[in-house]
Amino acid sequence: MNRCAEAAAVAATVPGSGVGDSGLRPPMVPRQASFFPPPVPNPFVQQTRISAARRLQKEELWIRLERVMMARQEEDVTTEDTVRWIDTKAEDADKMILLGIILLPVRALLVGLVLLLAWPFAVISTVCCPKKLTHPISDWRRKITQPALKFLGRAMFFSMGFRVTVKGKVASPLEAPIFVVAPHSTFFDGIACVVAGLPSLVSRNENAQTPLVGRLLRALQPVLVSRVDPDSRKNTINEIKKRAMSGGEWPQILVFPEGTCTNRSCLITFKPGAFIPGVPVQPVLLRYPNKLDTVTWTWQGYTFIQLCVLTFCQLFTKVEVEFMPVQAPSEEERNDPVLFASRVRNLMAEALEIPVTDHTYEDCRLMISAGQLTLPMEAGLVEFTKISRKLKLDWDGIRKHLDEYASIASSAKGGRIGIEEFAEYLKLPVSDVLRQLFALFDRNNDGSIDFREYVIGLAVLCNPANTEDIIQVAFKLFDVDEDGYITEEEFCTILQASLGVPDLNVSGLFREIAQGDSVSYEEFKSFALKHPEYAKIFTTYLDLQTCHVFSLPEDVQTAPSVASNKVSPESHEEGTSGKKVD
């Protein structure tokens, strides 16, 4: 018996290998509750569509029509009454269309008129002032312009058809220098700024350069953020600190801590900028309790123009602005703004009766990247805050994983990896070992792997196993004759045994690794580092051998190994020390 056949015979006796009798198998890795999928899979898509609303209206109309017909049969209602009722409903629909045709141009003209009336006051407020303020606008300017701008702000939203309900009491600058507003779901959320008395906003520097609107924005004395300045984040935080601790010299600051728009189905991660100064903040809740949602402006949904048209066509749009009690940070929260932000977010979510998730703006960037890779946009959602913190991954690293994921899932339905795509990517057949590896990735046991599960699987299962020691042990596993090279026969023999597939053809996989007729250690290491998924297969095979050896009687355990390729329990213990489990 040659060395390859000898090694295969040893592997075949391993319980659970798929070649010998079924037996013990290493236990499945337990799940961490903190990695469970979020309660809201995608908060960046508009859930209500006009077509869906119309469909519901049609269904309601047919239900009512059936009831009328039944009433006609039971109470002898005439056919003329039925036709008259249907005509009335049709007239109501025509009235809605006619109302939109009339309201849209009227409201557009009124909004334009209000903006033109507000512009002179904004000029008075900002004339001879630098774009980036170092001192607050003088009192006389504020006394002249602020009342007029507040009135015109309310007039503008009234002309748009908004019916605003205010709950709670607005805190003074000394009580709460900062407002934190959530959920942020639309550009119409500026209503909160008007109701709160026109506090300063945190805005992009480009917005202040926009004609007309830029002048109005500068009248609010905003904290401007520059995308090109590498020190912009630090400067913004310092500016917020300075204003928050000015003792009322500067206006209050209004911040949308989520940093991007959602569909109001949850509260995503609060950025810590508003909480770093360690001063009291007043949470502000926004609700849009309308039957038809025409305001939500997310990454997947209506455009700016479409939302304006739809909202202007409504008879009125209801919005509720609730000012919650002021929240002061504890000593621990002053030293940890993330903890302060988390507590305030939980309070707001509880009042809104919605869950919280760990999505953030970086998830939106991954959504766009997924769309560019011809994947469904929601495939890029991973709850970036949680994944990056727990797995020590940055955005570039996750973006690189997205490219790898797309190469596997591009041909799959719905952008999710099934067991067949997984096997095809690894150039291996579907076997017990491969199913076990797939099950470790498939965290919710739905028979497929999404991008979030793929990232967690690589970080928790494969990358920790893909160490120098494991790669060395794996190389020795394949190098049966210990000559420092792996031949195709050696590679095929061990892989057949470890996967439990005697007739496995691995020529294609071998050619991907080898530069010639054999594989050196450097070639093997380079391939393993680029494809960490295989590391788990190697360690699974080693675990199977260990499981088998330690299940044997003691006199058999101490006997020398039949194979001399140094794949023994001793070398396994040395090679897999420090293995990270999920």
SSE layout and pairing:
Elements lengths: L2 H10 L37 H26 L3 H48 L12 H21 L2 E6 L10 E5 L8 H5 L4 E5 L8 H6 L4 E3 L6 H13 L8 E3 L25 E7 L16 H9 L4 E7 L7 H5 L1 H16 L8 H12 L11 H8 L3 H15 L9 H8 L5 H10 L9 H12 L5 H11 L7 E2 H12 L7 H7 L4 E2 L1 H10 L2 H17 L4 H4 L11 H7 L7
Parallel strand pairs: 1-7, 2-5, 2-6, 3-4, 3-5
Antiparallel strand pairs: 6-7, 8-9
Helix pairs in contact: 1-18, 2-3, 3-4, 11-13, 17-20, 17-23
Number of strands: 9
Arithmetic mean pLDDT: 75
| Global geometry | elongated
How far apart are the first and last residues' alpha carbons, in Å?
41 Å
Strand content: 5-15%
Note the main sheet. 7 strands, mixed
Brief summary of the model shown:
It comes from Rattus norvegicus (Rat). With 582 residues, this protein is of the alpha/beta class.
